[in-house]
Design brief:
76 residues; alpha+beta; 1 helix; 5 strands
């Protein structure tokens, strides 16, 4: 199982696995956080838009939700 280490800078958190950055969380001016994969992964289409194309960026309402989603994806 991969261990995730979070590194923080102003309004940005980066998830590192084995010292390699895999995802960046950025705070948005309008509120919420965007999660961007850095290693080629994509977020699945949302349940309410099943035909949507998977994207490398996804929006989350809060930091805790974003971190939990990244950790779940990396560990699965």
């Amino acid at each position: 199982m991969a261990e995730i280490i979070w590194k923080e800078s102003p309004l940005t958190w980066t998830a590192h696995v084995n010292d390699t950055p895999v995802c960046t969380l950025k705070g948005k001016d309008i509120g919420g956080w965007s999660a961007s994969w850095l290693d080629g992964r994509v977020w699945p289409a949302p349940a309410h838009l099943p035909k949507a194309t998977p994207q490398s960026v996804r929006f989350f309402a809060n930091l805790a939700e974003a971190k939990a989603a990244v950790e779940k994806t990396v560990k699965s």
